[in-house]
Amino acid sequence: MKLAVLALCLSAASAFVAAPAGRAPTKVAAAPAAGIGGDLTGKVAFVAGVADSTGYGWAIAKALAEAGATIIVGTWPPVLNIFKSSLDKGKLDDDRKLSNGGMMDIAKVYPLDAVFDTPDDVPDDIKANKRYAGLESFTISEVAESIAKDYGKIDILVHSLANGPEVTKPLLETSRKGYLAANSASAYSFVSLVQHVAPIMHEGGAAVSLTYIASEDVIPGYGGGMSSAKAALESDTRTLAWEAGRKYGVRVNTISAGPLKSRAASAISTKGEKSFIDLAIDYSKVNSPLNKDLYADDVGASAFFLLSDLSRAVTGVTLYVDNGLHSMGMAVDSAALNDGGSLPVPQRV
Ligand SMILES: NC(=O)c1ccc[n+]([C@@H]2O[C@H](COP(=O)([O-])OP(=O)(O)OC[C@H]3O[C@@H](n4cnc5c(N)ncnc54)[C@H](O)[C@@H]3O)[C@@H](O)[C@H]2O)c1
C-alpha cells in the first residue's frame, strides 16, 4: 500500500526541474507512470539470507515481490530443511500474502553457505556434517553458476546475512578465530557475492546489504568483532560501488537498519536477562526522532527504493533506516538527565 503511494507521488514528477534564480529550468525526460522505475516485473532478485519470515531478508523479498520481481533465495544449509518444510506446509502463507491478494512465490531456494567461495574451501567436517549431506553446490561460486544456468542474467542481489560466533563477548575478550569468523561470514561474504554475482547481472542492476550503527558508534553488547565486520561492510560498499559500477554498471549500497527482533538478533542475549535486542528496540523507540516502532517492512520499502531504478543514480551509500536514531547525540531517557534539570523534548501537537 505504502509502495503504491510512493509510486503515485513519483509518477507525478514534473518534466522540468526548478531552476535556481536567474537560470533557465532544465528539461529532463518526462517519466511516464510505469516507466519511472518502480516496476520490477520481469526482473529477478536473489536474496541471500532468508530462512524464516521474521528477518529483514524476507521483508525485502516481499517488497520486491510486491513490485513484480521474481524472487529466488539463498538459505544456510543448517536451516534449509526447516525453511523448506515451513514453506511446503504452508506455515509461512500468512506472511506471503501480497497487497494485491496474491502470494509471494519463492521461485527457487538455493542452499548457500556464504563462508565458502569454492568447493575447495569446504573442510572435511562440513562435508561430513549431516546438515550438508546430499547438498552438492552451496558455495558462493557454485550458487552463482546455478543461478546463471537457471535464470541467465539477474537484476538484484540482496545480502541479508551475518554470523558472529562470539557476538555475546566484548571485543576485549574476542578470540582471533571468533573475530575472523564474524568478518568472514558477515563482511567478506558480501565482497564474494558481488564478485561472483555482479558478472551475471544486467547493467543497471543493484546490490544491497544490511549493516548496523555499531560500525561507527559504540553499541555495548554487540561484540565478537561484529562491529568491525559492519565497519568493513560499509567501507567495502563504497569500494565495490566504484569497482562494480565501472566494471558492470551495477550499483552497490547498504542499509543501516534499526533493531528488529529477528531470529539472528534474538541470539545476541545472555541467559536469564532481557535480551540485547529487546533493550535495543526499547532504547530506539524512546530516543529516536520518530518515536515509533520500526518494522521489517520499513526496511523492505527502503531496500525496494535502492534496488529499483527509483535510485538509479545512487551508489556507494549507507542509508539509515532507523527512525532517525543515528542522528541523536544524547539519550533523552538517560537517568543522568533526571537529576534536577530537564531537556527540551518537543511534544507532538
Ligand atoms: N535484526 C537487527 O536488529 C538488525 C539490525 C541491523 C542490521 N541487521 C542485519 O540484517 C541482516 C539480516 O539479519 P536479520 O537480523 O534480519 O536476521 P535473520 O535471522 O533473518 O538473517 C540472518 C540470516 O543469515 C543466515 N546465515 C548465517 N550464517 C550464514 C552463512 N554462513 N551463509 C549463509 N547464510 C547465513 C541465517 O541462516 C539467517 O537466515 C544481517 O546482516 C544483520 O546483521 C539486523
UniProtKB/TrEMBL annotation:
Pfam families: adh_short_C2
Keywords annotated in UniProt: Fatty acid biosynthesis, Fatty acid metabolism, Lipid biosynthesis, Lipid metabolism, Oxidoreductase
GO molecular function terms attached to this record: enoyl-[acyl-carrier-protein] reductase (NADH) activity
Superkingdom as given in the UniProt entry: Eukaryota
Example of a GO biological process term: fatty acid biosynthetic process
Biochemical pathway: Lipid metabolism
Entry's family note: Belongs to the short-chain dehydrogenases/reductases (SDR) family. FabI subfamily.
Name of this protein: Uncharacterized protein UGD1
Protein's organism: Aureococcus anophagefferens
Gene expressing this chain: UGD1
